[in-house]
Every structure is written in structure tokens, then in C-alpha cells.
Amino acid sequence: MLAGEGVQARVLNASSLRPIDRETLLAAARETGAIVTAEDHFVHGGLGGIVAETLAEERPVPMAFVGVRDRYGTSGTWDELLEYFSLTPPAIADTARGVLARK
């Protein structure tokens, strides 16, 4: 989606939150100059929070976080929930555009 706009993304797989792979995360921040996390979980206390803490201490860069914010859950199909929590590919792309504008 963003590739058509000339954006090259680097994807890191955080299969576990603890321990976070600090070296890989720091290298990605250094090489890209911006970080966007996306998770189908709470940002606070989740991947977004851990990434923010790590980068704030060692390599501050513009960051944005896609995930569940301080909202109550709801019922629906998977696609409905992705839409409700703004976890769709277009929403993630919009977030990435915003963080890239802050570089």
C-alpha cells in the first residue's frame, strides 16, 4: 500500500514481548528514523509501550502506535473489530504517513 508512494517499510516480528530484542529494535530505529508498531492488543503495557520505553531511553525517533487504546471491547466479526479499533491496513498506512511526516 505504501510502496506505491515510495515508502520502504521494514517489518520486525516481535513474537514475544519479553525479552524484547533490543539490538534489532535499536538497529531498525537507527536505519529507518521512525517506528510504527501495530498489534491487536492494548498499546499500553503491550508492544507499543515496550518499544516506546526502549527507544526513549536509547534511541528517540518519531513513533506511532496502532492498537487498542483506552476503550472497552465490543462484539463483532474479526473484520468489524479491526475496523472498530482502527487496525485495518488503510488505518495502519495513515499512521505510518503521519509518523513519516514528523521525521
Q: How would the blueprint of this fold be written?
A:
Layout: H1 22-32, E1 35-42, H2 47-58, E2 63-68, H3 78-84, H4 89-101
What does this structure look like?
This protein has 103 residues and is an alpha+beta fold. The protein has one domain: 3-Layer(aba) Sandwich (Rossmann fold). The protein is 42% helix and 14% strand. The chain contains 4 helices and 2 strands. The protein has helices spanning 22-32, 47-58, 78-84, 89-101; strands at 35-42, 63-68. It has a two-stranded parallel sheet with strand order 1-2. α1 (22-32) crosses α2. The longest helix has 13 residues, at 89-101. The chain starts with 21 loop residues before the first helix and ends with a helix.
